[in-house]
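Take one protein record:
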Amino acid sequence: MFQIKINNLKKYEEQFIFLKENLPEELENYLLDVAKGLLRLAKVRTPKDEGRLRSGWEIGELKREGDDLIIVVYNKEFYARFVEYGHKVVINKKTVGHAPGFYMLTVSVKRIKRQIPRRLKKHFDKVLNSL
């Protein structure tokens, strides 16, 4: 015969109810935390140019589209894409070279993606420990 005894069932039930009610908000908080981390990484990789490009990084509004949560990290300076991916150098209507990209956001996204599992565990361990 196999027998299982669970003590404090009411406590566990309350914790599950709390999680069910607060999980969407916690996921939003987690996603915002990831976006802030991405913003920090992108700013560090951004070259200084009188501060306009580095200070141009922003986090967009958190949106829900069906089952998806979406948040955008972007740079509002129009020339950010040329610094990100590189561009031709043109003098007197002649291409004289190529300026390499800094890949500020590209590299930062790759780094943050590697951190997501660890950050997710840390965030939800903190939530569960607070119950």
Q: What stands out?
A: The chain is about 55% helix and 20% strand.
